[in-house]
Amino acid sequence: MNRIRPVIVVRLTRPARRTMSMKNVLVAVADGCEDIETVTLIDTLRRGRVDVTVASVGKSTTVTLAHRTKLVADAALESVKPRTFDCIALPGGMPGATNLHDSATLAGMLKKQRAEKRWIAAICASPFVVLHQHGLLRGSRATCYPSFASKLPSDVRADGDPDVVISSQIVTSRGPGTATSFALSVLAVLNGNKSANDVASALLVDFVAPVPLQAA
Fold first, then answer.
1. For the residues of 139-187, what is the DSSP string, one character each?
2. Percent of the chain with pLDDT over 90
3. Active-site residue 87, yes or no?
4. Where in this chain does the record put each DJ-1/PfpI domain (predicted)?
5. Which domain holds residue 86?
6. The domain that contains 171 carries what CATH number?
């Protein structure tokens, strides 16, 4: 008998109407992004009263994540290109990170974000596959998934491969097991440590905000 594999569909609801004081974050998603990293990032930031827009880099707003979770994004990336975001955040996973890298629209938005010294965040494969390969980690320290960390230049790779690195307006992290710490760290740089600690407490997570690292 053929076994039927279940498919989980995640429909993301918009949070309450944004107030002027709320920070806004773009989470770019693509087919093949890592499930835990994607959903954890979105959920944690929204718990911390961040206005999160989830945008698909592909033609469809429905994306299939690395382990078959189907996610319905808020918008297509092209439609939010004119907007300004306090942070652009990228989940990892393969081939998700490659699909993010290959989006010319996303590359342009990230380069503009970096030039204007606004926050960028990336986890797992994305710090290397997206940020490094687009030249966005120059003058910063970073970490990423272990199989990619050895490919980072020595003046970029953070000593000791910490779970989360904050450096020069960029937050990076290692993978699915560090997704909650990553999301809380992004929340901390946007809304302060108290906001991150409050969310961590509600999630029953021990969290200490990383100390920002200076470039080598």
1. T--B---HHHHTTS-TTTBPTT--SEEEETTEEEE-SGGGHHHHHHHHH
2. 88
3. no
4. 23-187
5. 21-202
6. 3.40.50.880
